[in-house]
Amino acid sequence: KDDDYEFGNRFEILKAYCKHADDEEERGDPARIRRFITKAITPLFAGEPNGKKYRIALDEIAGIPKKLKAQAKSLAGQPKISELIMNCALDSLSDDVLFRSRKDSFEMLQEQERAKSQKDPRPNNGERSAVVTEWQQRRKAESDGLYEQMLSNGLVTAKQEAPTNQHAQIRNLTTAGTGGLSHNYRVFLGVGSNLGDRFQNVRKGIQLLCRSDEVRMLRSSFFHETAPMYLSEQPSFLNAAIEVETSLEPHVLLKLLKDVEQDLGRNFSEVRNGPRPLDLDVLFCDRFENGAWKHLEIDSSELQIPHPGIAEREFVLKPLSEVSGGEYMHPLLNQTVQQMNEQLPKSTGPSAVRVLPLPRNRTILFNETIVMGILNVTPDSFSDGGNWDKSVAVAVEHALQMQRDGASIIDIGGESTRPGAKEVEEEEQIRRTVPVIKAIREESDIPISIDTRHARVTRAAVEAGADIVNDVSGGLHDDRMLETVAEMGVPIVLMHMRGTPETMLSMTEYTNVVDDVTQSLKERVKAAEEAGIPRWLQIADPGIGFAKDMTGNLLLLKNLDKIRSHLHDIP
Fold it and tell me: Which residues are identified as catalytic?
């Protein structure tokens, strides 16, 4: 009866919230479970003529967290929260055509989940695919019959057209994500924030978006500081773009995006284009059909794809060009993203500036040369060893003096990486560096990088106030490093080096030093992305002086532009 609300969407949304509830069950947080249950049940009963059913269902479900808490010691034997939600919801609905359509869709989702969770040996994959295909065909035939029933009962009219076509909506219940076993949509999203801790808002939003296995982030652009557009009297924005893959149909994805925005504090009743803690926009969407990606074009009252404002917005085109490679073709304008970006009129105001986001709502702007001040609190570093390791107060004063002299970053190291240096124990590195970091933080908010190859040192330093991890091994020395940096959400400098400081001078022979170093850095960048460190938190370092001779060093310096271009312009 609600033409503007896809029934298929309700179950996709409900399924997503059930997944959240199950996650919270594992964490044992009854209050958050109750929140997800309430949000899960609401869309299912939206538009129901009898509000009493909705209240009864909520009353029945509201007691679940208390029961679970009382039986915390035997949680392993309890049914999943999601099953309780769905069962209560379905039991509270009338046994009519609409109920049966929803119940069928629930059974379908259960069937898909069972198929996805099977880990049979490869020879059984074909058999399982055949079963799933047969099941989908049967469900499609049932949906056709269901539509005819709904049509005869007056629940839909034959005049309706996509995307509000009820026939398509019911079919989506049974065939959404054709195959049900993979992500068949590729989506480019614009992300932005200009209220509160902008980077953390974006980071938390993406974490919420990707909590379910139905959405997975593939890659990101860099971040850009941009002036507000349309409504100028507001703070500047932090903007970026990401590419995700998803099994969610675009309208379902849109609903999820709006929920994430609302969870982060966005008020949709406020002025359009005004300040907001989080903005998530669908820019482009492709669907995988017949072995190839096909551009989707949607024009409904809720959603337009491609996004109608792409061609006029520098804050969209710059990051979109970075994440798509610039060659992505706008299906309506027949222009690539790069061509649209180049045709933007020259702005009279400041253009989008690439930035490196830091903790506590700070950024480093890449529109000028940045000087890093080196502070080694070691007895044996080649440049300043033994100068600043005797007293925390002396080390701090030197850091502050470097800031007064023009340094924009202070790099603190507790382990010498000079040629021939031996490895220093993690505990000793922490003893040397953490008190200095804490003391600097009491005097200044200057960005601090911790120069270490060790994950334990990284964690201790960041918790003490460091902002950036500077790893001369590019994350290779400690296999916990990349996952630790990803968890803490700070930038990392990925440097190229062969061997260790103790052995690197015996490893300076290359087939082609520029190509070899570039390829190695590409691999480290990819490894960092796969570990959960987006490109907007990465800096590449060719490692001048580390496993290179004089000729190699000079060739790398001479070809920095080439190296950057092959690394997709990573700083």
Answer: 266, 276, 279, 281
